[in-house]
Amino acid sequence: MRESILSKSFKVISLISVIALAACSTTDEKAYEDRSVEELYNTAMDQLEEGEFTEAAKTFDEVSRQHPYSTWAKKAQVMEAFAHYKGQKYDRVIASLEAFAQLHPAHPDVPYALYMTGLSYYEQLGPSSRDQQDTVDALRTFNELLRRFPNTAYALDAKQKIILLQDALGGKSMDIGRYYLDKQAYQAALPRFQEVADRFQTTKHVEEAHFRMVESYLGMGLQQQAVQSAAVLGHNYPGSPWYAEAYSLVGARDIPEFQDKLPTSDGVNSLEGREEGVMDRLRNWNKGALKKKAPEVENAPETDAEIKADEEAYS
Question: Is the Cβ–Cβ distance between 155 and 145 less than 8 Å?
C-alpha cells in the first residue's frame, strides 16, 4: 500500500525535529561541559582581572551550578556578586548577596556580603531632591553590619558612610521643610524640622532645623513655642549664627530668661558677610508683625491628605 502524502509529511517533520533536538543537545553539551572547579574558578578570576565582568559572573555561576557541594561554591557566589558590582549591576548584587546572607548566616563572608550590599545601595544615591529609598536601605544594611559584626574590617568604613547617609536623610527633610515654609504652610513644615532635631542630631542640619522651628512657630503666631525653641538652640549651640539670628527674631533681648543665653561673639560675627538669600529674607521681616499670625497663602496644604499629595508632587 502506498503511503499517503500526510504520512510522508509527518515523517519528514519528525526527522527535522530529531535533527533539531540533536543540534540543541550538542550545543547544550558544549555550553555545560563539565569542568573541574579549579579550571572554572581560575577562568572566572582571569575574566575578572581582564575586565570581562559579565563573563566572569557567568563563570562563577557555573562553579556553583556544576560543583554545588564543593568548598568553592559559596565563595563563587560571593565573587559572582562582586563581578556584577564591578559591572555596576547593583540590583543583581543586592539580590544575590541578601539571599546569600539569609541562607548562610554563619558563613565567614557574611560581613563582606552585608558591606557590599550596603555599598551597592550607597553608590546609587541621588541628590536630596530625589527619592531617598536607596539611602534608607543603605543605612539599614550598614547598621545591621555594625550590630552583628562591629569588629570586622568593614565596620570603620560603614560608620563613616552612616554619617553621610544620616546627613542625606536630614537634608531631604530640610528640603521639604523649607519648601513648605516658603509656601507658609507652617503646620506641614514644622514636623520636618522636628524630625531633623530629634533623629539627626549629629548632622550639619540640626542648628538650622531648630532655627526653622522658631520661624514656623512665629508663622503660626505661637510666640511662646518660638521662644522655647530659640532657648533650646541657644543652650545647645550658643556660638551658632542661627542662634544669633533666632535671638534677634524672637526679641530675646527683652525676655528675662534669655539674660544668661546671649549669643557669643563668634555667632554674631559669623553673620557678617553671609551670602544673600540665606538669611536676608529674615532680616527684612517686620519683627513686630512676626509676633502676630502671618497671613495664609492661598491653596496652602492643611489636611494630612493635602500635605501628603503635595509632598508626593514635590518629590
Answer: yes
Q: pLDDT digit string (tens) for 154-195?
A: 999 999 999 999 998 998 999 999 999 999 999 999 999 999
In angstroms, the CA 306 to CA 297 distance is 14
Give the angle subtended at the CA of 52 by the CAs of 50 and 58, to the nearest 5°.
130
Q: How far apart are CA 182 and CA 107, in angstroms?
A: 52
User: Rounded to two decimals, what is the model's pTM?
Assistant: 0.67
Tens-digit pLDDT profile for residues 33-68? 677 878 888 898 999 899 999 999 999 899 888 888
- Render the burial of 234-257: b for 16+ CB within 10 Å, e for the rest: beebbbbbbbbbbbbbbbbeeeee
Report the half-sphere exposure of 281 (CA within 13 A, side-chain side): 7
| Residue type at position 305 | A
DSSP secondary structure code for residue 149 in this structure: -
Distance (Å, whole) CA 142 – CA 159:
8
Cβ neighbours around 62 below 10 Å, total: 22
Q: What is the mean pLDDT of residues 301-312?
A: 60
Nearest to 172 by CA among 225, 128, 207: 128
Query: Pick from 216, 187, 189, 196: which is nearest to 282 by CA?
Result: 216
Give burial (CB, 10 Å; 0-12/13-18/19+) of 70: middle
